[in-house]
Amino acid sequence: MADGFLEKHYEDYEARKAAWLRKQKHLPKTPKRKLERPDDESL
Asked: Which DSSP string do the residues of the chain spell out, in sequence order?
């Protein structure tokens, strides 16, 4: 396939990947909630 098929698809992939990464950087980070354990473990 000498028509640049793979190169074209790789360029499209790189563009989608860059857009996805830009979108990921702007998402708010959700803090990890720590589960509270009861002091008395004898439930």
From this structure: -TTSHHHHHHHHHHHHHHHHHHHHHTSPPPPPPPPPPPS----
